[in-house]
Every structure is written in C-alpha cells, then in structure tokens.
Amino acid sequence: MAHVNEHYRSLPAGYLFPEIGRRVRAYQQAHPDAKLIRLGIGDVVLPLVPAVIEALHRAVDELATPEGFKGYAPDQGYDFLLDAIQKHDYRTRGVEIAGDEIFVSDGSKQDSGNIQEIFGLDCKVLVSDPVYPVYVDTNVMAGRAGKADAAGRHAGILYLAANEANGFAPDPPAERADVAYLCSPNNPTGSVLDKARLERWVAWARKHDAVLIFDAAYDAYIGDPTLPRSIYEIEGARACAIEMRSFSKRAGFTGLRCAYTVVPRECTGTTAAGERVPLRELWARRMSTKFNGVPYLVQRAAEAVLLPEGRKQADEQVAFYRENARRLGQGLTAAGFRVFGGVHAPYLWVRTAGGLSSWDFFDRLLAEAHVVATPGAGFGPAGEGFFRLSAFNSRENIEEALARIQRVFGRR
Ligand code: MLT
C-alpha cells in the first residue's frame, strides 16, 4: 500500500496563487464581460528585451550545427554565465564569489523550496510573517513543522511579525533558530533590509551558528545604491549565508526560467556527531542528483542580461515597473489608503479599506473594481487586513486599475 506523505496534510488545501486563480476563473465565468486587471501574482508582462532575443536566436543556430550542438549542461552552469555573474552581480559590489560557489538553476522558487533538504529535520526554522509561502510550505512538506493553529501558524516554526512598527523588517529575535529565511526586497511587503539590519542578522546567525537563506530575487528593484544588493556585502556573511538571485523579475524570465544560488565554501552545518560539513558539498550533491541543468540557450539569454547592452535594456524594464509601483503608491495614498513598499520593490503592501479582512477586500475589489489583488492573509496571519498589489502590468492597466479603485473606494 502506498502511504502518502502525511506532512502534506498539514498544509492549507491549495497553494495561494492557484487558489486565487480558481476564484478569479469562477468570477470570470459568471461575469464574462468583466474586464479584469490582474495585479495579483507577480508575473511580468513586457516582452523579452532585444539583447536576450538575439542571444536566444544565436544559441538556437549554434545548436543546429554539429560543432555547436550541446547536450547536458555542466552541473553548476556554463562558465560564460558563471563568469558574467561573478563580474556583474558581485565584483561591481566589491564581493568575490568563486565560480564553483554558484549553482545555476531554473528558478529561485525551486531553490528556496529545495534548500531545506540539506538541513536536518530537527532544525528550527525562522520566517517573518507575512512570508513568501514557499519557505513555510516546503518545510511543512518535509516534516519540519506540524499542523497550523487557528491563526495559521505551523507548530515548530518561529514566526517574526513584520508590521508597521518595525517597518515590515523585523530585527533578529533574542531566541535562537537554525535556519532563517530573509527576503529583501521583500515579497510580499516590499520592505528592504538596510546594511545595519543585515549586519544584525549576520551577527545573530554567527552567534547562534545559524544559516541565513537570503532570497534576493527582487534585488534589481533596489533604487538606492547605498542599500546592499547581496548579503555578502556584509562582513562575515560568507560563513553563514546562502543567497538566491533570479532573472525572472529583472529581465522577464518568469517563463524562460533562470536563477542561481550561491553557497560559499565557508558556510557549514554540523552532523549529529559534531563534525563540520560544508553546505556547498551537500547542495552540489543534491543538484547533481536531482537536476540536469538549465538549457544552453537559456543560459546564453541570461548571460545577455549581464552584458552591457542587455543590462541597459533590462534596467529600462525594471525602471518601467518601478514607475508603475510609484504611480500606484501615489494614487492609492491619495485615495486614503495606507501604502507600504513599492519603492525598492515591485510590490505594494496596502491596508484594506474599512477594516475589511484580506479575503473580503479581495472579493470586493474583484466584484466592484474588477481588479485582482493578493490577499495579505495568504502570506501568513500577520498579513490579515492587508492586500498586495503587483506593479507588473502595462501603464494603461495600472492607470485604469487605479481609477477603478479610486472610483469604488473614493477618498476615505
Ligand atoms: C509572487 O507573486 O509572489 C511571485 O510571482 C511568486 C513567485 O515568484 O513564485
């Protein structure tokens, strides 16, 4: 008899975004004439930039020749992409990362979900609340956490409330944990961790011998050059932090799929017998066993994003989405909403109108403004009373969504 993994039964019935998709489809079926504007899931809308398209075409042509054909990609990624990552993403920030500390993958969602596999089941996991659901759900699936309480907090996970009082960027707690997930710029709140706060997290991790999982999937949205883009800009982070970056939101790769994870040599965990083990070795083992690499043409496309022409074009897309976020923030604030984030991030974190619950507000926004948001409660109990808007849309749709929201909710 095939017994199921009972841990899955501790999860909420559906993952957040498919659940939203289900509700939106049902609404659209019942109201086929409604012209919905989707500001829910953070999915890009602009086409791939010309430098990426050219790189893809060139790579396809190469693959069509006997000399240019490629089979399996190297385990951790092609050298041309590893070099470009080292040079552009790190050396420009004064950080040295070795090529074999970088693992190219098909997405930060997968990497941030899979990384927990290299830690023991007895590890205490820390997340902020609200949180990108992948961090929690994958630990629940693995059996590192129990059932959720009435508020939705899983037993065994340490939740740190991210709220208005702490700028949605909580400091490390007094207590210890073994693995802590940090996301900056933050999904869903759009907050960003500055140098001083990151230094406190690194000091906390060093003190408790903990590992920080630093998800920087939205780093391209940081507009202030004094804010760190990489956790390795913080002294001591190499010994305690794993970092993830993605091409999804910086260059429209949500469909193409390319990201990478950095696991520095100095970053270690311990065995039950107390032996120190480099986490890099475990992640290399995991990846070579379960993953066969990102396609050559996708890696060439990612390389193009890091070369001067592609970088300029991709930066223009990011600037476009940032301007969307700015307009949304300004318009919602003018309509009387309390708005957070949206400055160094493509997400706005907004208090619901009239004290409505997140899901009630979601339903009202859908029914009356035909705008799809993401209910804050879907990201954890501390998200109750908030909703998230994504700036990934056309300028026209952003303006139209804003006009509709202002029409429905007026000035409050
Ligand atoms: C989101 O909307 O939170 C993101 O698109 C989800 C993701 O990147 O997986």
The quaternary structure here is single chain
Q: Average pLDDT, to the nearest integer?
A: 96
CATH-level-4 superfamily name of the largest domain:
Type I PLP-dependent aspartate aminotransferase-like (Major domain)
State the shape. globular
How large a portion of the residues is in β-strands, by DSSP E?
5-15%
- Kindly name the structural category: alpha/beta
What is the helix fraction of residues, given as a range?
Answer: 25-40%
Cross-sheet strand order for the largest sheet:
2-8-7-6-5-3-4
Number of domains: 2
What string, H for helix and E for strand, traces the elements in order?
A: HEHHEHEHEEHEEHEEEHHHEEHEEEH
**Uncertain segments:** none
Rg, alpha carbons: 21 Å
Number of strands: 15
What ligands does this structure carry?
D-malate
CATH architecture descriptor of the largest domain: 3-Layer(aba) Sandwich
Given the structure, what is the number of helices? 12
Let me know the largest β-sheet: 7 strands, mixed
| Distance, first to last CA | 59 Å
Give me some keywords for this one.
412 residues; alpha/beta; Aspartate Aminotransferase, domain 1; Aspartate Aminotransferase, domain 2; 2 domains; 4-stranded antiparallel beta sheet; 15 strands; binds D-malate
Produce the secondary structure layout.
Layout: H1 16-30, E1 37-38, H2 50-63, H3 79-90, E2 102-105, H4 108-114, E3 125-129, H5 133-142, E4 157-161, E5 179-183, H6 195-208, E6 211-215, E7 241-246, H7 248-251, E8 259-262, E9 268-270, E10 276-278, H8 279-290, H9 296-306, H10 308-334, E11 339-341, E12 347-351, H11 358-369, E13 371-372, E14 374-375, E15 386-390, H12 395-409
Parallel strand pairs: 1-13, 3-4, 3-5, 5-6, 6-7
Antiparallel strand pairs: 2-8, 7-8, 9-10, 11-12, 12-15, 14-15
